[in-house]
Prior knowledge:
0% of the residues lie in helices and 39% in strands. It is an all-beta fold and 83 residues long. The protein has one domain (2-70). The strands form two sheets. It has a four-stranded antiparallel β-sheet, with no helix packed on it. Strands 2-5 form a two-stranded antiparallel ribbon. A hairpin with a 2-residue loop joins strand 3 (25-30) and strand 4 (33-39). The two termini are 29 Å apart. The mean pLDDT is 77.
Amino acid sequence: MEIATPRLPPGCRARLHFGAVGRPVLGVEVDGQPVGSQEVTPEVMWDQPFDLDINDALKPGKSQRWVVKVVKDRNAAGVWEAG
């Protein structure tokens, strides 16, 4: 997905928020470069929200290609939704 990156006010940092993502690993790339990931462990359940600090990957005022990768585990199934 192409996203036009806005300019941030001085002192602000950009974070990408995920409400919940399935297992085992989520990866985010900006312009082909890895930005971060979240591995699911017993301490970090699949239905827990998390943030990635993406500030260093941003090029304000330019269009950037964003890729979010979710790897589906053969044993995991279904979609979790907040009730």
